[in-house]
Amino acid sequence: MAGLWLASGAAGAAEKIRTLDEILAAAPATDWRPLDADNTLYMELPDGRVVIELAPAYAPRHVANIKALVREGYFDGLAMLRAQDNYVVQWGDPDGKREIKTAQRNLPAEFTREWSKTFPFTKLDSVDGYAPEVGFAYEFPAGRDRKKKRTWLAHCYGMVGAGRGNEADSGDGTQLYAVIGHAPRNLDQNITLVGRVIEGMELLSVLPRSGGKLGFYRTAEQRTLIKSVRIAAEAPVDQRSSLKILRTDTASFAEIVDIRRTRHEEWFKYPVGYIGLCNVPIIVEENK
Amino acid sequence: MAGLWLASGAAGAAEKIRTLDEILAAAPATDWRPLDADNTLYMELPDGRVVIELAPAYAPRHVANIKALVREGYFDGLAMLRAQDNYVVQWGDPDGKREIKTAQRNLPAEFTREWSKTFPFTKLDSVDGYAPEVGFAYEFPAGRDRKKKRTWLAHCYGMVGAGRGNEADSGDGTQLYAVIGHAPRNLDQNITLVGRVIEGMELLSVLPRSGGKLGFYRTAEQRTLIKSVRIAAEAPVDQRSSLKILRTDTASFAEIVDIRRTRHEEWFKYPVGYIGLCNVPIIVEENK
Q: Whole-model pTM above 0.80?
């Protein structure tokens, strides 16, 4: 936190501080990856598409089950159930009557997973009250405890999880939620996160707040329809979103973290010198 | 952070852990205060009222100017200018032509203020990367630096600030913003916060995202009308909102922080043991 007006990290103190646009324009193609089409969902709402990338490295059982549900058409015609301001939106079956055909009921909890040196983790230099260490794995925000050899996904804005009841193993992926407010990091290690909204977050964040308890809608008229959910790799090629994501284990990403930690723009009078995990931008662009 | 399953603070390890509802039901009347009617604004939107409490202790010049603008009717008939997802909504004059009659142009920056022991500050036990200490003053989330004898308001969800240009003293209160996403704490000490949305936040958080640069709306049709803004104390008595706020310098509030820091509910399998400044609920209720 010293030397707040000096560049830190990749750019070097004597070099020009690059802007975000300059960093992205100069990033080699290898710094980007396409979304993992086998683990990407397209959720079609009346106003457009929500693209969700799943995190099989963290929640393999849940991801497999959600994909099984999607292939069954489980979510097609279901609805948004809940929009609680500054917290989450949640979707699933409002009537609780839809049949599950091939998918599992009640999966084991995947709140955390084993961490070892073979598991990628790009540490963020950031003090964090909710985790001994924070950083990024597979372009997802995550926590890590080296002593316990555990890692887990973090409840930042746009993260998607699987609702559950009081029992740890009572989630099954039939009800999913996305964070639409200040990160409820107290949920970390308490519920299974399954991925992140990559595009279309603004379709979820503006859903009407019902004012009901926990934000649950009371009537069918209040609920937004889910037209369909599909796995990207199984959608017709001409209907696929073409998105790329900046890898979080690259020098380009590290430089972005640096310029967002210590602010050099003229507008900033106090250069900050710190960045929280959920304030780090994960960059997504159209593949052109 | 030790003894995560034991109660800490007011409740005592051997006593029953009270729920939020139990704490609030038992809180003495003196733990609550009414909103400060002289420093509370009613912003009437087509879908309802947004109640904003101003913070004259932190931004006296800005608050005085905003009240002068309100009394002029400056905001009446203006509009929401911008809704940037996971960041802010901002309102003001889309045409930049409205005359300022009695209010000042270009106020001195009020990014921080002097702190001394006579200034109330209820410290939160919470490691925070953006400030040496965090806590609450006058029911607002705030940072403090004892060495520099400074304190400042923190950009948590629902906080309201005064937009400015590149010059520190270029804000005047004619354009105001509210935080609608994960706390952009990097703005702390960089811009003047003037208060907080107390009620009606859900009217701002669902405003349509334009997709334009920084979320600015491009056309008049996209913008939500501000029907009027009034000072609560100057509104007809039968049109006033009757709200009370739980004082943050009370044992009741400390107990709420404790039960939100360490989770005792059956649902929580990992009791957390930490709470961030912007995750602490500031309690507002109807006066009955």
A: yes
